[in-house]
Design a protein that fits this description.
The protein is of the alpha+beta class. It has helices at about 40-45, 60-75, 105-110, 150-155, 165-170, 240-250, 270-305, 310-355, 365-445, and strands at about 85-90, 95-100, 115, 120, 125-135, 140-145, 180-185, 190-200, 215-220, 225-235. Strand 5 and strand 6 (about 140-145) form a beta hairpin. The termini are far apart.
Length: about 450
């Protein structure tokens, strides 16, 4: 006989999910959190599919799916500013220029091609810095300083990879770094796309308000000797600000006497530099965490030396150790994100090296420096990961000690209560004995 429906309005379980085993519910109805993003997936995008989707050269289903998702993001006007307002650094191997581009300036920049200098074509590189501001109705609640028209121009003229669009608009989750390449004529290297999101070590600092991670996209076109970066991040991001200050040192508009440094000799040079800035920033935050943890460990040592520890101090240190537990897990995940990015950059560097004979720009004098820097950063992140796991083990030992102190104190209290109850029991036995002696005489009289 089928089980009758049960009113579960007060139990927290979904009605109608009985499995016939003593009324056990398999599907628990949990409260729905406030949605972080307004992402409806492919369903609504396919319904809105039209000829406005960009041309797909490969005609594959994967490319179709990527373009549909990209088009859905483009259809939300709240994701973009009404007019483009971005900062751009441009270098041709000799001069570095900084410009602030509006809609017209950006269109001219995208329409231009790499010019010949002194009869020889030079490697040309662009850096576009897009800021992300909070917007309630945006897909990821972040609005880019690029206009929709400007982004569509990047897709159509410079073949911006569709898969970068969610990261470009501030997708909050850390997705895997992605590397794509295609071959040009005669099997030579054609296009290399590499993009990733950087870890947010600053999230552990007081007053942190940043919502979107730093997302960086690089495309290298070997046929045109053209590299361009799109760096999408909140305006207050320290990593990006430090990188721009370095660019200002060599920019002809940044200082009156720009430093004579040979820049941008390799397409991945900026990715390596940004990775180093990001990894270096982790030192300060990890050091703050380390000092906070050791301060609590010293308190635990003091409490363990006392015969009777203060219960209020034990409760306070338990809360602090719980906070430390969350912080160390977050730092471990940040270091892991950085390590995965570095591993992917090394893979991209290897892929470029395999075709260096067809792309002379890869044979730069700074190539070995890039290799050494990547190895150093990767080893540094591995060591940081080792120390963070060590700190987590120390924290676990301290929490176990606090638990044991509380347990021992409770046991000591129970022993004292048992002693008092034993004394009370002895007194009651004496009273019962006296009652037995005097009660018969009292009754007779």
């Amino acid at each position: 006989m089928a089980a009758l429906p049960i009113d579960t309005s007060l139990t927290g379980y979904a009605s109608g999910s009985l499995d016939g085993q003593n009324d056990i519910y398999r599907s628990r109805q949990r409260p729905q959190p406030h949605p972080l993003v307004h992402d409806s997936g492919y369903g609504s995008a396919i319904k809105n599919y039209s000829s406005s989707i960009q041309t797909i050269p490969s005609r594959s289903l994967i490319s179709l799916a990527n373009s549909i998702q990209c088009q859905e993001l483009l259809n939300n006007d709240s994701n973009f500013a009404p007019y483009t307002a971005v900062e751009c650094y441009e270098s041709d191997g000799r001069l570095t220029k900084r410009r602030y581009l509006d809609e017209n300036g950006f269109n001219k920049c995208v329409s231009s091609s790499a010019p010949a200098i002194d009869g020889e074509r030079k490697h040309r590189i662009f850096y576009f810095f897009a800021t992300l501001d909070f917007a309630e109705s945006a897909t990821y609640r972040a609005r880019s300083s690029f206009s929709r028209v400007a982004v569509e121009a990047l897709i159509s003229r410079w073949q911006l990879n569709d898969l970068f669009m969610p990261d470009f608009l501030g997708r909050p989750n850390y997705w895997c770094p992605e590397l794509y390449s295609s071959s040009g004529s005669e099997g030579a290297l054609g296009i290399v796309d590499f993009f990733c999101q950087y870890p947010r070590f600053a999230i552990h600092s007081p007053g942190f308000k940043q919502r979107s991670p730093v997302s960086i996209y690089m495309r290298y076109d070997a046929a045109k000797d053209l590299t361009y970066y799109i760096i999408s991040a909140p305006e207050s991001e320290e990593c990006v600000q430090s990188f721009k200050k370095l660019l200002d040192l060599v920019s002809n508009e940044g200082t009156g006497n720009p430093l004579n440094y040979s820049l941008f000799q390799h397409p991945l040079e900026a990715h390596v530099l940004l990775s180093r800035i990001s990894c270096d920033s982790s030192k300060g935050y990890i050091n703050i965490f380390r000092q906070s943890m050791f301060a609590q460990l010293r308190i635990v040592d003091e409490l363990s030396a006392q015969e009777t520890a203060d219960r209020k101090r034990l409760a306070a240190v338990t809360i602090e150790l719980q906070i430390i537990s969350k912080d160390v897990n977050k730092l471990i995940s940040d270091v892991d994100v950085a390590s995965r990015n570095l591993a992917k950059i090394q893979e991209a560097l290897t892929r470029l090296d395999q075709t260096c004979s067809a792309t002379p720009i890869i044979l730069s004098p700074h190539h070995q420096q890039l290799v050494d820097t990547l190895q150093y950063l990767h080893s540094s992140m591995d060591k940081q990961n080792m120390w963070l796991h060590n700190y987590r083990d120390r924290k676990d030992i301290a929490m176990s000690l606090v638990f044991n102190l509380v347990t021992q104190q409770d046991a000591a209290n129970n022993i004292e209560i048992a002693k008092d109850m034993r004394k009370d029991s002895s007194s009651m036995n004496g009273i019962a004995l006296l009652t037995m002696v005097f009660l018969p005489g009292t009754f007779t009289s």
